Amino acid sequence: MVLGPLGPSLAPSVLKNRSLYRWVKPVADWYVNLSGWRRVGYKYDDLIPEERPDVERALSRLTPREAYDRQFRLKRASHCSVLHDILPKDQWTKPEEDVRYLTPHIENVEKEEQERRAWDNMAIERK
Amino acid sequence: MLAARASAARSASRLARNYASVVDTAGVKVAAVDNGEPTSAVTFLVKAGSRFESKPGVAHALKGFAYKSTNKRSFLGTVREAELYGGVLSTSLSREHLALSAEFLRGDESFFVDVLSSFVTSAKYTRHELDEYVAPVCEAESTTALANPATRALDLAHLLAFRAGLGSSPYTSPGAHVSVEDVKAFAKSVFTPGNIAVLGTGISSEKLQTLLAQSLGGLSSASAPTSAPSAYFGGETRVEAHGAPETVFIGFGAAGVPSAELAVLAAHLNPKPSVKWAQGLSPIAVKLPQGTSVQSVLLPYSDASLFGLLVQGPTTAAVKEAGKAAVTALKTAGEIQGEELKKAVAKAKFAAASSVDYRDGLAFALGAKALGSFASLDGTLSNLEKVEASAYSKATASLLKSKPTYVVVGDIKSLPYADELGL
């Protein structure tokens, strides 16, 4: 999981601790805005490298609508890159729109892979 | 001679009568018989055939979803664990029933019953499984099955004969779109207590009931889909096909419970010889040109039956000649009596009795008993014994009076039309 497409993350432990979350959240929001993917219309999950079998499989599980929207965002953002510009402010991704639409699929694919590995390397005990 | 055979058939029917009593467990009908086989088999017979489907192809997709991921175990987990136990999981779909079967060694029943019942109660029906595994398999199965001209002809014959209901095909037609929501809704409506029968062979009834009581808790109680009672229509169609034997199907159907007279008619016309390499005494067999074949097809359903002759041959001329012979035999089939009729009755009885020799036939006979859809074996045999010459010729005449179902698959330009065969 550490070397998977999603990489290591401290987020689960931060989310568990209420007061730590309150401290970290403003910094995280500031960092997200600074990174600027929302200014070219991306969602965070659009940044996950897709050139891997597991992410490709996860991408094939998107609904047709989700896949179409993703293509549109990628195209619009690469156009921004060509123009060396960002989108007008009304087209920026709003924080509430920036949902993890791909991560659950990637996690499912990873879980299936892990299960397959477990079955492949299983040792049978006679009782 | 005939009397001796009749008594043997009666004791066979007594054996069949003893084998199982139907009990309710968790609202589900359970029937089991243990004849000391080295392996056990459990079949979930669900009234979820294509005649009940809400949308074309849903029943086939539901069959494809069998043994995929459930709340208890994943698709891979089911496959690997079943392999470790050395069992075989299989499914089959007819126009009336979906059968989910597991065959396994004695002692492994708790795992396999749990696999079957967890599919029925808690299958997940995920969209990616439909796209990645179920839909491609359904498409391949349909393509393979319908590439066979005999299957194609029978499929079309059902459509012509019964239109809606029994006419709907158990194969997905190319281009039919079935979504996961459709399958989920169909599964929810068919997996209800009154709609399922659980049949065991090689397993004791008590054991099966205990296992089912533990695992079949969460069945939904939605109302099961119903199908309008079948009516017979008939008609003619011609479909182009290449590279396969030229095929003609001449069929007649009847609504209502399948009659014993029809089984006798099918046995009388069946040109399959009882001795290998012999010609057989059927009225059709003597006139068949070299290389052609005629099979008599009798498909009984709960409220209708389709009877017909499937003529196949390498060339259209040969098929035409064989078709003419078949139609002539069909027209004079009602006139037989005496020893001829007794012979046909004996053949029909053997066919009915030997069908429960094997596990599949036995499971379906038990299922028919449990779901109350049609008569059990002993009933069938005694009905066959009671067939009289007058009733037989009346039944045959009324069958032949109805509009024929005539299907041609092959070279449609030169294969005969129905009137050219004398129908």
Automatic annotation (TrEMBL), chain A:
<keyword id="KW-0496">Mitochondrion</keyword>
<protein>
    <recommendedName>
        <fullName>Complex III subunit 7</fullName>
    </recommendedName>
</protein>
<keyword id="KW-0999">Mitochondrion inner membrane</keyword>
<dbReference type="InterPro" id="IPR003197">
    <property type="entry name" value="QCR7"/>
</dbReference>
<comment type="similarity">
    <text>Belongs to the UQCRB/QCR7 family.</text>
</comment>
<dbReference type="InterPro" id="IPR036544">
    <property type="entry name" value="QCR7_sf"/>
</dbReference>
<dbReference type="GO" id="GO:0006122">
    <property type="term" value="P:mitochondrial electron transport, ubiquinol to cytochrome c"/>
</dbReference>
<keyword id="KW-0813">Transport</keyword>
<keyword id="KW-0472">Membrane</keyword>
<dbReference type="GO" id="GO:0045275">
    <property type="term" value="C:respiratory chain complex III"/>
</dbReference>
<keyword id="KW-0249">Electron transport</keyword>
<dbReference type="Pfam" id="PF02271">
    <property type="entry name" value="UCR_14kD"/>
</dbReference>
<keyword id="KW-0679">Respiratory chain</keyword>
<dbReference type="GO" id="GO:0005743">
    <property type="term" value="C:mitochondrial inner membrane"/>
</dbReference>
Automatic annotation (TrEMBL), chain B:
<dbReference type="Pfam" id="PF00675">
    <property type="entry name" value="Peptidase_M16"/>
</dbReference>
<feature type="domain" description="Peptidase M16 N-terminal">
    <location>
        <begin position="30"/>
        <end position="164"/>
    </location>
</feature>
<dbReference type="InterPro" id="IPR050361">
    <property type="entry name" value="MPP/UQCRC_Complex"/>
</dbReference>
<keyword id="KW-0813">Transport</keyword>
<dbReference type="GO" id="GO:0005743">
    <property type="term" value="C:mitochondrial inner membrane"/>
</dbReference>
<comment type="similarity">
    <text>Belongs to the peptidase M16 family. UQCRC2/QCR2 subfamily.</text>
</comment>
<keyword id="KW-0999">Mitochondrion inner membrane</keyword>
<dbReference type="GO" id="GO:0046872">
    <property type="term" value="F:metal ion binding"/>
</dbReference>
<dbReference type="Pfam" id="PF05193">
    <property type="entry name" value="Peptidase_M16_C"/>
</dbReference>
<feature type="domain" description="Peptidase M16 C-terminal">
    <location>
        <begin position="178"/>
        <end position="343"/>
    </location>
</feature>
<dbReference type="InterPro" id="IPR011765">
    <property type="entry name" value="Pept_M16_N"/>
</dbReference>
<keyword id="KW-0249">Electron transport</keyword>
<dbReference type="InterPro" id="IPR011249">
    <property type="entry name" value="Metalloenz_LuxS/M16"/>
</dbReference>
<dbReference type="InterPro" id="IPR007863">
    <property type="entry name" value="Peptidase_M16_C"/>
</dbReference>
<keyword id="KW-0679">Respiratory chain</keyword>
<dbReference type="GO" id="GO:0016787">
    <property type="term" value="F:hydrolase activity"/>
</dbReference>
<keyword id="KW-0496">Mitochondrion</keyword>
<keyword id="KW-0378">Hydrolase</keyword>
<keyword id="KW-0809">Transit peptide</keyword>
<protein>
    <recommendedName>
        <fullName>Cytochrome b-c1 complex subunit 2, mitochondrial</fullName>
    </recommendedName>
</protein>
<keyword id="KW-0472">Membrane</keyword>
